[in-house]
Structures are given as C-alpha cells and as structure tokens.
Amino acid sequence: MDYLRRLQLERPVLFWVVTLVAFLIGFQLLLFVAGLLLGPFGVPSWAAVILVVGVLVVIARRQQR
Predict the structure, then answer these.
(1) What is the dihedral of CA 57, 59, 63, 65, to 10 degrees?
(2) Rounded to whole angstroms, what are the CA distances from 50 to 13, 30, 33, 55?
(3) C-alpha to C-alpha distance for 43 and 17, rounded to whole angstroms
C-alpha cells in the first residue's frame, strides 16, 4: 500500500491510468465469471451485467452502514 501511495504522489497520471485499467479488467473478469455461471441456465446475455451491477450495489450499500 505504501508503494501505491508513493506512486499517487509522485506520478498521479500513471496512478490513475493503472487504477482505471485495473477496474476495467476486474469488471470484465466479473462479467466473464457471471456469464460462465449463468450460461447453462439459458438466460439472456445482459443478465450477467445486471447480476454483477446488482451485487456491486449490495456490497456498496452494506459498506455505507
């Protein structure tokens, strides 16, 4: 964590680019896993997006308490 804090202070643009790429890759990975889990049930492809966003909303709401 100290490395990330130092990177944010010394090179903020690089820090935010790396953070953005990490979030995009993480979201794509979550969508892929949700698609694998929901695939055998024959649900539409957009159901994985709804599931992932719903789970992220529930997690965010629980952290606010």
Answers:
(1) 70
(2) 31, 12, 13, 9
(3) 34
Residue 63's identity, in one-letter code, is Q
Closest CA to 53 of 35, 27, 32, 29: 27
Among residues 7, 8, 38, the alpha carbon closest in space to that of 54 is found at 38
pTM over 0.85: no
Cα separation of the two ends of the chain: 25
- pLDDT surpassing 80 at residue 1: no
Structure tokens at 64: 């606010």
